[in-house]
Design goal:
Layout (H helix, E strand, L loop, with lengths): L1 H46 L13 H7 L3 E13 L5 E17 L3 E6 L1 H4 L4 E5 L5 E10 L4 E7 L5 H6 L16 E7 L5 E15 L7 E6 L11 E3 L5 E8 L9 E5 L4 H9 L9 E2 L2 E6 L1 H7 L4 E7 L4 H4 L7 E5 L2 E2 L3 H8 L7 E10 L2 E10 L1 E2 L2
């Protein structure tokens, strides 16, 4: 009899648990549907109308169809000198491929963003659009610190039909993404043409050293990034660019580790490079100082900040009339980090002479360095 009572009680409890579980599942589904609607609404309220609705977990084809007209293939011809064991050499032209995405358009030019390493040393650059139309492009400028470059394509060379169908990329906010968010990579994989891979954001702020240069904070994704993808966009589920594909780890024990430059880190640099297109060589800005690099080893050895040491200030320049002093260490220009004198000159060269830039400097003060900001008007190059 006791055994029968136990069985009955177990059955009742099991039924209660099952019933409660079903009610909980129904409640969770209803709450999830409400939450999804609220989140999409909040996103639209905060950032304006999104370019596309979020895709489902499995189907990204609507995003790909809409975004593809903003993505391009980039083909380069690079002169290479080859030496033999007898000391002789010969030159030949090597071809390489990469990707890019359209970021701006003027009445006469279309501007495409890519990686610097895609177009470095190229003597000829061609851009191919989604419909196969290929046009010769020209290098506007590059930023070696961020592995960033802008190339331009004359709109008169593109053709009306292609020009009417291309679109400007929608730029997202890489600061808002989270680990686990779905992402989409588009690029000229292996030089065979456009290909799409899908994955998730695996990590944020990965400090990676590439080609022996200084480390940069990058997004990590498990979407496949292959040779030829460099310079192409990494997209969120709304079709917005959140990163620029730039590198991957490869090896027999490595799988699904690709990297992209967070778009928020380079938006201002992209704008500077595009603006520099209209600057003639004689109009480029100059800071009016002589600087020395404070290398990583030097900084550690002498407890100094990384940056550019102001060795001297040239007479009859705006810098000489500013609050800048010999011994200051310049760490940023308009909020962008500078670590070498060459990069500092490259940076201010993106602005016209007469432009005011804001320098962030570290100034020695007894036992420490204090940080101050100084506005300096750029002079012309001489």
């Amino acid at each position: 009899m006791k055994k029968l009572i136990k069985i009955i009680l177990f059955a009742i409890l099991s039924g209660a648990v099952l019933f409660a579980g079903l009610k909980l599942v129904n409640f969770a589904i209803e709450r999830l549907e409400e939450t999804d609607t609220e989140e999409v609404s909040e996103e639209e309220d905060h950032s304006g109308a999104l370019p596309f609705m979020a895709v489902s977990y499995d189907d990204v084809s609507p995003i790909v169809d809409a975004v593809m007209p903003s993505v391009v293939s980039i083909d380069c011809e690079i002169p290479v000198e080859e030496y033999n064991i007898f000391g002789g050499s010969k030159q030949y032209i090597a071809k390489s491929s990469g990707s890019g995405f359209i970021v701006s358009q003027s009445p006469s030019q279309l501007f495409v963003c890519t990686n610097e390493h895609v177009i470095k040393d190229a003597q000829k650059v061609s851009v191919s659009f989604f419909d196969g139309k290929s046009v010769e492009a020209f290098i506007v400028g590059s930023d070696s610190s961020y592995d960033l470059a802008i190339v331009s394509v004359p709109t008169s060379k593109i053709g009306k039909e292609t020009l009417s169908k291309i679109r400007i990329s929608s730029i997202g906010n890489s600061d808002n993404i989270m680990v686990g968010d779905k992402d989409i990579a588009i690029g000229n994989s292996l030089g065979y043409g456009m290909a799409v891979t899908v994955g998730h954001v695996s990590a944020i702020g990965r400090e990676i050293t590439i080609d022996g240069t200084r480390s940069r904070p990058l997004l990590q994704t498990d979407a496949a990034i292959n040779p030829g993808n460099s310079g192409g966009p990494l997209l969120d589920i709304y079709g917005q660019v959140i990163g620029i594909n730039c590198a991957k780890y490869s090896g027999v024990d490595i799988e699904g580790i690709g990297y992209a430059i967070p778009i928020n880190n380079v938006v201002s640099t992209i704008n500077e490079l595009i603006n520099s297109f209209s600057i003639d060589e004689g109009e480029a800005g100059c800071l009016g100082i002589v600087g020395k690099d404070v290398s990583e080893g030097y900084a550690k050895g002498f407890s100094m900040p990384r940056g550019v040491y102001v060795y001297s200030i040239l007479d009859r320049t705006h810098a000489a009339d500013s609050d800048l002093k010999v011994g200051d260490i310049i760490t940023h220009v308009n909020g962008q980090e500078v670590l070498t004198y060459d990069y500092l000159k490259e940076r201010v060269g993106h602005y016209k002479a007469g432009t005011t830039v804001t320098l962030t400097v570290k100034r020695p003060s007894r036992t420490k360095y204090i940080e101050i900001e100084i506005d300096v008007v750029l002079d012309t190059l001489e």
